[in-house]
Specification:
The chain is α+β, with helices and mostly antiparallel strands. It folds into two domains: 287 residues, Aminopeptidase (3-Layer(aba) Sandwich), CATH 3.40.630; 114 residues, Alpha-Beta Plaits. The protein has twelve helices and 18 strands. The strands form four sheets. Strands 3, 4, 5, 6, 7, 8, 16, 17 and 18 form a nine-stranded mixed sheet that branches. Helix 1 runs antiparallel to helix 3, helix 3 packs across helix 12 and helix 8 packs antiparallel against helix 9. The protein is globular. The two termini are 13 Å apart. The model has no long low-confidence stretch (mean pLDDT 97). The structure holds zinc ion (ZN). Zinc ion binds next to loops.
């Protein structure tokens, strides 16, 4: 049983509020995209706080900031952190909270227990959101696992059409050196993050131990029929892609609804050609976003959606085609770390539940080189990606205590 690890709520609040000044937007928002002056300010502050805490600071080739406590026995590192870039605008907590939590946990552990046996590191990762460079999501964690190709920096463009290579040079980073950010010496990565959904609030709990990150697939579907007059063509002689779309949209959403949590399916976009009140359209394009955290169930969910599309198209005489735009495999948390996190929560007397993440996170990239698991902290009204996102200091302190006790167990 780990002793109670004291986390100072005043320090937590001060760190959150001071960090939120970099990119402060409206009353409570933060607009801090990667390689912007605000991002530079935030990473400088993070590095200074790491130094103040007695950590060795290193900035890697893409701009991730690391703070390290060497271990007396050496070996692979136990790492905790998250991203320090935000949506445009986002809030004070998404990502930033995890970067700060790692630093605060290491600081508390060093004060109470001194040097760890194994190396411990806190990290502030860059460009998770893709809010400046949409094709560069998870840029910082992808550099760590070696998943950035040599062409990417010159090819990936931001919303103002600048390349990410230009943006890196402007802040003194050399894109040719990105491969140097690669790490092969990370044993475990634990990411604390806000929940971004309403489940903890509904359950009346401050914290969740995350069992895995959902698999996500995006389909772009096209249904083609025959464009004709809305009055002159009897129903039985139509090839109406809108009618097929309606049946498919209703069917796939209904499937996820009947499966229940944690399956989710969303039809978020639809376009008809032409888009006229008195015309049976020629073509309908729409998207399906389908997610499940269990890899096997995820595959079954996708197969069921595909079967329905084929059945409806065949019955209605429509031509059906689809493209898969995004396909991320589900990423289950490491079973050993899950046990450690739950034991840590019990030792700190923090009530918790188990939950899957419906959103993507840096952890799913880090899983390529390390064992991963996550801690969620309750989000007010389940909100995120907005200046209105909020988590209470009490809940945040509870989450950091679970994190610190887990790191203690792994590294001391
Ligand atoms: Zn995030």
């Amino acid at each position: 049983m780990t002793d109670e690890i004291a986390i100072d709520p005043a320090l937590v609040e001060r760190f959150i509020m001071e960090m939120a000044r970099f990119g402060a937007h409206s009353d409570t928002g933060v607009w801090r995209t990667v390689y912007s002056p605000e991002w530079v300010g935030a990473t400088d502050l993070y590095a200074r706080w790491c130094e103040d805490a007695g950590l060795k600071v290193k900035r890697d080739a893409v701009g991730n900031v690391w703070g390290r406590l060497d271990g007396t026995d050496g070996g692979k590192a136990i790492v905790s952190g998250s991203h320090i870039d935000t949506q445009a605008p986002g809030g004070r907590y998404d990502g930033t909270l995890g970067a700060l939590a790692g630093l605060i946990a290491l600081r508390a552990l060093k004060e109470k227990y001194g040097a760890p046996r194994r190396p411990l590191e806190a990290v502030a990762l860059c460009e998770e959101e893709g809010s400046r460079f949409p094709a560069a999501s998870w840029w910082g964690s992808r550099a760590i696992i070696g998943r950035i190709s040599p062409e990417d920096p010159g090819r990936i463009r931001g919303l103002a059409n600048e390349t990410i290579a230009q943006a890196m040079r402007e802040v003194g980073l050399d894109p040719a050196r990105i491969p140097e950010a690669r790490r092969h010496d990370i044993d475990s990565f634990i990411e604390l993050h806000i929940e971004q959904g309403p489940i903890l609030e509904q359950a009346g709990l401050p914290v969740a131990v995350v069992t895995g990150i959902t698999g996500i697939r995006h389909y772009l579907v096209t249904l083609e029929g025959t464009q004709n007059h809305a009055g002159a063509f009897p129903m039985d002689l139509r090839r109406d892609p809108m009618a097929g779309f309606a049946e498919i949209a209703s069917g796939v959403v209904d499937t996820a609804h009947r499966w229940g949590r944690p399956a989710v399916t969303t039809v978020g976009r639809v376009e008809a050609e032409p888009n006229m009140p008195a015309v049976i359209p020629r073509r309908v394009h729409f998207t399906i976003d389908a997610r499940h955290p269990d890899p096997e169930a995820c595959a079954r969910l996708h197969a069921s959606h595909e079967r329905l599309m084929q059945e409806v198209a065949a019955r209605r005489g429509l031509d059906l085609s689809w493209e898969v735009l995004i396909d991320h495999r589900a990423c289950p948390s490491d079973p050993g770390l899950l046990g450690t996190l739950q034991a840590a929560a019990r030792s700190q007397e923090v009530p918790f539940m188990l939950m899957a993440s419906g959103a993507g996170h840096d952890s799913q990239q880090m899983a390529a080189v390390a064992k991963v698991a996550m801690i969620f902290v309750r989000s007010k009204d389940g909100r995120s990606h907005t200046p209105e996102e909020f988590s209470s200091i009490d809940d945040i302190v509870a989450g950091i205590k679970v994190l610190a006790a887990s790191l203690y167990k792994l590294a001391y």
